[in-house]
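Colleagues,

For the teaching module next term, I've prepared a clean inverse folding example: a structure given as tokens, and then the sequence designed for it. I'd like students to try predicting residues themselves before seeing the answer, so please don't circulate the second half yet.
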């Protein structure tokens, strides 16, 4: 008989699952143990002796988290000057007319050192965010893949990437929120505080612990769509690049060639990330600047046009940032010889069910 459940999944998949012609085949029996132990990316071509640890092991997760710390902490700190100007464009558009004008006014008022304001909370906050973002993404991707089984994990892989990245970012933003609030306060309120040590006690004295977490909901609004786009778009772009652009299979590419593909896919994902998350980013910037403000109040104040202020600066920043983050993260995997599975391929059991030779 026809595998009816599989047919419904293939037809109902909203993420462009390929259309197949089903053949009459006997439904093969699969043990639950086999489904549980099979991973989405367990088809890695590297032999066990070539990797420093097993895919999905505690060491694997820990080193992925370390890669996340480096990729997010270093890149966000490197673009602090651009981030500072972007925030000022969002919260004070009457004074800062453009990116160039923002840079010149900042240097004129605070000197060149003024462009580095907020570097410490940026480094600490985004390092913690990177730890949770990349580390938990690997955890949730494997967990959800085991939960739904090998065949469904392949057919619904985009949904899998979206769910895993959203789950990871939920926790990552809780880790980021306090330092993000401090960073925005330093960057957008001249004279309020110049350093992390000066700003934290002042904010706590004025508003209590809420001062550091009042932006967490808008942060979720900004970062969860951003991260879902970042991971799902990256994963599928890598898959498409190897399928249609790169002239040879991934296992025949050198490590350097693979990292170039990683960088290109990361930049493409970054552009879409910036567009999707920018309105919420504008709300977060104003919310953390103004005491007693709420997300709904800020949204009404900015209006439909105001939430898009600073988009060009953010596309430049986020595109470059995302490409560098994926490049650094993948480089860490290469350096520590972590398993790096190739883009997913259709399982043999699914090919048999669909009558594909």
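(Answer key — instructors only)
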């Amino acid at each position: 008989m026809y595998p009816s459940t599989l047919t419904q999944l293939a037809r109902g998949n909203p993420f462009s699952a390929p259309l197949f012609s089903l053949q009459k085949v006997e439904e093969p029996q699969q043990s639950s143990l086999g489904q549980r132990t099979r991973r989405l990316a367990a088809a890695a071509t590297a032999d066990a002796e070539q990797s420093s640890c097993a895919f999905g092991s505690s060491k694997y997760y820990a080193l992925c988290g370390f890669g996340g710390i480096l990729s997010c902490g270093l890149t966000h700190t490197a673009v602090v000057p651009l981030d500072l100007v972007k925030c000022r464009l969002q919260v004070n558009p009457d004074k800062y007319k453009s990116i160039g004008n923002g840079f010149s006014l900042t240097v004129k008022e605070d000197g060149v050192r003024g462009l580095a304001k907020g570097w410490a909370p940026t480094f600490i906050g985004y390092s913690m965010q990177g730890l949770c973002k990349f580390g938990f993404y690997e955890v949730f991707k494997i967990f959800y893949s085991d939960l739904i089984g090998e065949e469904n994990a392949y057919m619904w892989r985009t949904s899998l990437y979206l769910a895993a990245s959203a789950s990871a970012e939920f926790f990552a933003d809780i880790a980021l929120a306090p330092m993000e609030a401090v960073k925005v306060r330093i960057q957008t309120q001249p004279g309020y505080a110049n350093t992390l040590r000066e700003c934290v006690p002042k904010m706590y004295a004025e508003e209590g612990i809420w001062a550091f977490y009042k932006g967490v909901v808008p942060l979720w609004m900004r970062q969860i769509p951003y991260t879902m786009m970042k991971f799902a778009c990256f994963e599928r772009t890598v898959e498409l690049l190897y399928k249609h652009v790169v002239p040879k299979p991934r296992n025949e590419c050198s490590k350097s060639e693979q990292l170039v593909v990683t960088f290109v896919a990361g930049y493409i994902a970054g552009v879409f990330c910036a567009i999707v998350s920018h309105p919420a980013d504008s709300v977060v910037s104003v919310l953390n600047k103004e005491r007693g403000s709420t997300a709904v109040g800020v949204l009404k104040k900015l209006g439909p046009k105001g939430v898009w202020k600073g988009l060009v600066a953010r596309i430049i920043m986020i595109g470059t940032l995302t490409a560098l983050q994926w490049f650094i993260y993948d480089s860490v995997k290469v350096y520590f010889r972590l398993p790096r599975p190739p883009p997913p391929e259709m399982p043999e059991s699914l090919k048999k069910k669909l009558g594909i030779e």
